[in-house]
Amino acid sequence: MKLRNILIVLFSFQILFTLLLKYFSYQGDLSSELHEKILKYFTEADIQAGIDYSRRGFFVSIIASLLDFTLAGAFVFTPLSSRLEEFFQKKVGGNFYLVVFLYFISFYLIEFFISLPFSYYFGFVIEHEFQFSNMTFLDWVIFKSKSFGIGLFFGTIIMLVVAFVLKNLPRAWKYILPILSLGFGLLTSVLFPIIITPIFYDFGPIEEGSLKNKIVALSEKANIRIENIYVIKESQYSGHTNAYFTGWGESKKIFLYDTLIKNHTEEEVISVLGHEIGHWVHNHQTFEIVLGTIQTFLFCFLLGYVFQKVKAEELVPLKEFYSPSTLPFLFLILSLIGTVIEPFSAGLSRILETQADQEALILTNDKKSFINTEIKLAKDNKSRLNPHKLEIIFEHSHPTTLERIELAESWKGPN
Ligand SMILES: [Zn+2]
């Protein structure tokens, strides 16, 4: 069988599978056994709110997916992509990098404007309907414009660097790109809170007081030195809550959403931070970076190999490997690989999240606050409390709320 045909079959399977998974996610797990277990911690209304929120916009999300697939199919299996590149080539003459730049910009604009109405519907209309969003329409436009500009800026730099490496190092690129992407990943984790966060958020150091003292005591207990604790003003945008760590070695920073502090007791905030510290204690970040780099190496080899084979068949309109018009083809291959490995990466992530939960319980020694946090978070975010098993296997990076509560219930700590 021709490789092109194999790709078309895999692509069709991917579309079917995506739709099927959406259907199962819509259904959820409606077994009465699960329902009874959930009712120990939640009301019928909580369960229904999760169902309503997760089901809202079902058909619109199907249309969005189908549109995405159609666009990907058209760009990969018809001459559309190479025609676009040729068009720019004619306009600007032989300047390769200018063609790369123009191709990327048009690709980015097409993608952005096609996804814009969906982004407005899901990110603005539905978020208001469920009373999550505090944004005015103007706030939303500003937020979107900033994301657009940042994506365009970094996307252009990445594209030009990748094009340079591919064109000038036809053999070594497989080794160079994973190393560059590792470097870029480390750099963004340091620069993100300094450059990107301030573009979107107001934030400042946490107030002196008992919460700060408790956080310092917690990090000392875990042997983690914290440089700064910041409070991010998420309430200007939404009621969603979050907390995260950034930085490396001696310069760790904690970011807490003001919504988290407002809606939770100090003990509950500490429980959330205990989980984040759990990730540090178990070196999950380092583990994920090493794994990610190995993965990038393998992907590069695979992409190079598949490209050569498919190009040799001359059935898919492909130019050179470094040509900008090859980009949609490479994205398609990556997305196919992604679908295949999704359950493995999601499963691994759930294992790490469980480990962080266990560490939170050990560090805080407070399973009551842990359980209350889980209940409150699920209620506040209208989480789906009865997700379908297939959805969990393929898409959930975290254990379900009920699993996390049950983990805490079974914890044999001092209280
Ligand atoms: Zn986590």
Structural write-up:
- It is a single chain.
- Helix 11 crosses helix 14 (367-380) and helix 14 (367-380) packs antiparallel against helix 16.
- The protein is built from 16 helices and four strands.
- A four-stranded mixed β-sheet has the order 1-2-4-3, with helices on both faces.
- It has 415 residues and is mainly α.
- It starts with a helix and ends in a 6-residue tail after the last helix.
- The chain has a domain at 3-169 and 310-409.
- Strand 3 (243-246) and strand 4 (252-257) form a beta hairpin.
- The model has no long low-confidence stretch (mean pLDDT 93).
- The protein binds zinc ion.
- Zinc ion is lined by residues 275, 279, 353, 356.
What letter string, H or E per element, gives the SSE order?
HHHHHHHHEHEEEHHHHHHH
Strand order of the main beta sheet, please? 1-2-4-3
Number of helices: 16
State the end-to-end distance: 63 Å
Major sheet characteristics: 4 strands, mixed
